[in-house]
Amino acid sequence: MEAPRDLAFEAWTKPEHLSKWWGPQGFTSTFQKFELQPGGTWEFVMHSPDGVDFPNTNVFDEIVQPERIVFRHTVFPHFVAKATFEEINGQTKLTYRTVFEETEAVFEKVKTYAAPGAEQTLDRLEELLAQLVNRTSGHSQQ
């Protein structure tokens, strides 16, 4: 990611940034609770472009600024997610992994939307980071 590690980590940990990019293309999110601490809860509703709401609850297991975030998605589909942030020459290498706890048969169905959804979500993160980098470096057009 063409952004400093601190900024990339901030995009994951500040609700005003996270709400702008979390979810596939066309989705929006309404955050109800965001307790960024081990054992803290992140509750939100993802709203699809066709009007379907998807309630989500995550529990943070680990927050190590600016290195990693680990959380459990406690509603279907159940998974543990880990995001790691590595600084390389002023930019950020983000590694995002999820381990699903569903049966193999259920996972076969889930991955048809989970993998493309995760890719679109991370694309949205890159777009937001480009805007934030522009804003902080004074390159925005006014």
From TrEMBL:
Keywords: Coiled coil. Residues 3-129 form the Activator of Hsp90 ATPase homologue 1/2-like C-terminal domain. It comes from the Bacteria. Pfam families: AHSA1. The keyword Coiled coil applies. Residues 115-142 form a coiled coil. Signal peptide: none annotated. The keyword Aminoacyl-tRNA synthetase does not apply. Belongs to the AHA1 family. PANTHER family: ATTACHMENT SUBUNIT, PUTATIVE-RELATED (PTHR36929), BLR6751 PROTEIN (PTHR36929:SF5). This is Uncharacterized protein YndB with AHSA1/START domain. The lineage of its organism: Bacteria, Bacillati, Bacillota, Bacilli, Bacillales.
